[in-house]
Design brief:
The complex is a heterodimer of chains A (287) and B (433). Chain A has 287 residues and is mainly α. Chain A has 13 helices and one strand, in the order βααααααααααααα. Chain A has helices at 28-33, 35-49, 58-78, 88-109, 112-115, 117-120, 129-159, 171-192, 198-212, 225-233, 235-248, 255-279, 283-286; one strand spanning 15-17. Chain A is globular, with a radius of gyration of 22 Å. In chain B, the strands form four sheets. A six-stranded mixed sheet of chain B has the order 6-7-8-4-9-10, with helices on both faces. Chain B has a five-stranded mixed sheet with strand order 13-19-18-15-16. In chain B, strands 2-3-1-5 form a four-stranded mixed sheet, covered by helices on one side. In chain B, helix 4 (141-155) crosses helix 5. The chains are: A mainly alpha (287), B alpha/beta (433). The interface between A and B is large, with 41 and 56 residues.
């Protein structure tokens, strides 16, 4: 223990723990090394939710069905908000299926540090593993809810009341954008709520405000001209609109809009990972 | 032997008190200095980490200028009182928090066990949790699959493997968790007091496994514990930490005996002005109560050596008969024994017992033989009993001391040694054919 270190082996350290990390080290390679953990986390999240329930995974279906029933009644039948000539249940289902995914990911990722504090405080693994596996396990839930959507969609298509088109092929891109934006913004928020919790009180409101600012219960075409610009700035709005257009032919599809969403995603992801990696080093001291 | 861990000038500063507008101000100060390219001014302040002293600054150094190296295959024990910085050091080594200054250089993969069963999900089965916990600790899935049988065997929970762990007894839970940890393939293993739970048989198995890990496979183990017996058996090197600094580094037996013999010398002795009476006696008062080993006061005593409970008292009037009495309480306040200086309680004859005493100062002491108490902390209630016992002086929890097993008695058995006392007995086994 007191022996002098041989100068020859100074280069052999596999790791150096220091007060500050390098700014632009995204540590993605390390995340990749922990891919098995991501997979196991996803399994944990999916399996553990409906243990000890009788209906089990059927709850995945019942949730969106109930939402659609309420929306169709309240916004369609009572408030008579137009739906771009798309059958109302399908219109709401298209919007809420994607929106639920986005809002689950965003609210989950934004509490990464606070809700995993017990785990992060005891053992090290790349912290990004937690929000990434959250985004992916929500994707599994989205997949199940998507089946509900597809069932309705197939019915209306057979019925002839909608005109799907080849833009359907862009669906994976739309999901990727959703995932990326929610991950990026989520981890930024999570990084800023480790020390001062104020922002976390604002989050539930922010998410519901964002929902009403996104064409979920109304089509963009129903917006007065003056508010269109606001809708253009919302990166999620383009994605939802594009999705609805691809599957039903109603609404609009804008490559410009999706381009904007893509730029937004890349920026928020890069910024998010940099800030996240900076905060993760000492967040245990202040969380 | 190659150096696998090199800790250089590591310090860790914490802020005391709540996070609020005060921390906001400090954050802004820090930011302002950084923008100007100056050094963080808050790093210059901060007091050493002594729990009992009132803080003179909002910042405290949980660790200050820690330097040491660990060689491959070493089992390094880290000992020290509560708040000495042991856990903070482990947190930095296991990367759950970054140091404020300094650096740690590491060669090889580190697995840390600051808690057993980290990330265990109550709803998942034993098998699922083995994978979950293993992956959290850095194992690949195929590694876990390869070791699954060994882990299950080690933990002895085969029957419950497909039952959710929330149905497990706490012992089974710990076995499973330690089973996973013990089969990690990291070069360096960090362990923090995880052996505090689990039954004796299992503790022994774990300690055996740890020894095996370092000796057999050339792995390095860092082990924080208050169980001196375990430290003495397992570790070849020991770091003794005190108030955030490394007090001593050296061979296990040397450092452990230093640790046992140092203390603040406050709790095992008490003097006149600090004595708190529950009831005072009109005829006499107590000058001092001390716990002695070879004539000296310590906080910790070697449980294989004799200790003396000594009381010095002053009799205020001539011709009062006063006897002395002690109650020995364990850490939970249970009375282990009661004694006084009368013939029915003594081996010898105390010449002053039952006599009318003259005015003056007396000292009386009772010897507790070595190899009698267990490794536990004890308190003494002291009494001065005059003939009219309603007037006796009562001093509750007058002094406190700890008996420590140096490891000598733990050669054969390393588990938790239950029992209020641990006397050595006459034992005999005969061969009957």
């Amino acid at each position: 223990m007191h022996k002098a270190t041989n100068t020859a082996d100074i280069e052999q350290w596999t790791e150096i723990i220091e007060p500050k990390g390098r700014w632009f080290d995204l540590k993605l390679k390390e995340v990749w090394e922990y891919r098995d953990l991501i997979q196991i986390f996803i399994r944990r999240d999916v399996v553990s939710v409906y243990k000890q329930t009788i209906l089990g995974p059927i709850w995945f279906f019942l949730g969106p069905l109930m939402t659609v029933f309420i929306y169709t009644f309240v916004f369609g039948t009572v408030a008579k908000i137009p739906t771009d000539n798309i059958p109302a249940p399908l219109f709401y289902l298209a919007g809420t299926t994607l929106w639920n995914y986005f809002s689950n990911c965003l609210s989950g990722a934004s509490t990464t540090f606070t809700s995993n504090a017990h785990l992060f405080g005891k053992v090290y693994f790349p912290r990004l593993v937690a929000p990434i596996s959250l985004i992916l396990s929500n994707l599994v839930k989205l997949g199940v809810q998507f089946l509900v959507f597809l069932a309705f969609w197939a019915w209306y298509w057979y019925d002839g009341s909608i005109t799907p088109n080849l833009y359907i092929a862009a669906t994976p891109l739309l999901l990727l954008l959703m995932a990326g934006i929610s991950l990026g913004t989520g981890i930024i928020i999570s990084s800023y709520t480790t020390k001062y919790r104020d922002l976390s009180f604002f989050m539930p409101f922010a998410i519901s405000i964002l929902m009403y600012a996104t064409p979920i219960i109304y089509p963009t075409s129903a917006l007065p001209e003056t508010y269109r610009l606001v809708a253009e700035l919302n990166p999620i709005a383009h994605i939802i609109e594009a999705f609805r257009f691809a599957f039903t032919g109603g609404g609009s599809f804008s490559w410009w809009g999706l381009g904007y969403s893509t730029v937004f995603m890349v920026m928020s992801l890069l910024g998010g990972i940099v800030i996240f990696n900076k905060v993760e080093r000492t967040f245990m001291d202040t969380v | 032997m190659a150096t696998v861990i090199k800790v250089e000038n590591v310090s860790k500063q914490y802020r005391l008190g709540n996070v609020g507008s005060g921390t906001m101000r400090d954050d802004l100060t820090r930011w302002w200095y950084r923008m100007q390219g100056k050094e963080d001014p808050l790093l210059k302040i901060g007091s050493t980490n002594d729990r009992s002293q009132k803080a003179d600054s909002d910042y405290v150094w949980a660790l200050k200028d820690i330097n040491f190296e660990v060689q491959q295959g070493d089992v390094l024990g880290i000992i020290g009182r509560n708040g000495a910085g042991k856990s903070t050091l482990l947190k930095i080594l296991s990367k759950t928090t970054a140091p404020t200054t300094g650096s740690v250089k590491v060669k090889g993969r580190i697995a840390s066990l600051l808690e057993v069963g980290t990330g265990f999900h109550p709803e998942l089965t034993g098998r699922e949790n083995i994978y979950l916990n293993g992956a959290i600790l850095g194992m690949r899935k195929h590694e876990i699959t390869r070791k699954l049988d060994e882990i299950v065997d080690f933990a002895g929970v085969e029957r419950y493997l497909d039952t959710p762990v929330k149905r497990y007894s706490s012992g089974m839970y710990v076995r499973l968790a330690f089973g996973v940890a013990a089969h990690l393939e990291s070069e360096i293993l960090i362990i923090d007091e995880v052996l505090a739970v689990g039954d004796a048989e299992f503790q022994k198995k774990c300690l055996g496994k740890m020894g095996e890990v370092s000796k057999g496979e050339g792995r390095t183990v860092l082990f924080v514990s208050h169980n001196m017996g375990a430290v003495a058996t397992l570790c070849n090197e020991v770091i003794y930490m005190e108030t955030g600094k490394v007090n001593k580094i050296g061979s296990a037996s040397q450092i452990i005996s230093d640790y046992i013999n140092t203390g603040t010398k406050k709790s095992s002795e008490v003097y006149q002005e600090n004595i708190k009476y529950k009831v005072e006696c009109p005829y006499a008062f107590v000058n001092s109560i001390r716990v002695l080993s070879n004539g000296m006061c310590f906080d910790n005593y070697n449980l294989s050596e004799d200790i003396e409970i000594e009381m010095e008292f002053t009799v205020k009037h001539d011709d009062v008969a006063i006897s002395a009495s002690f109650h020995l309480l364990d850490n939970l306040g249970n009375c282990i024994l009661a004694t006084f200086n009368g013939p029915s309680a003594t081996l010898n004859k105390d010449n002053f017992y039952g006599k009318k005493l003259k005015k003056g100062v007396y000292v009386t002491k009772a010897t507790i033989p070595g190899n009698f108490l267990n490794d536990n902390s004890y308190k003494i209630n002291a009494y001065l009993v005059p003939e009219d016992s309603s007037n006796m002086a009562i001093i509750e929890e007058a002094v406190e001391f700890t008996m420590v097993d140096t490891g000598a008695m733990r050669k054969e058995y390393t588990g938790s040694w239950i029992g209020q006392i641990r006397p050595k007995m006459l034992w005999e086994t005969k061969y009957l054919g």
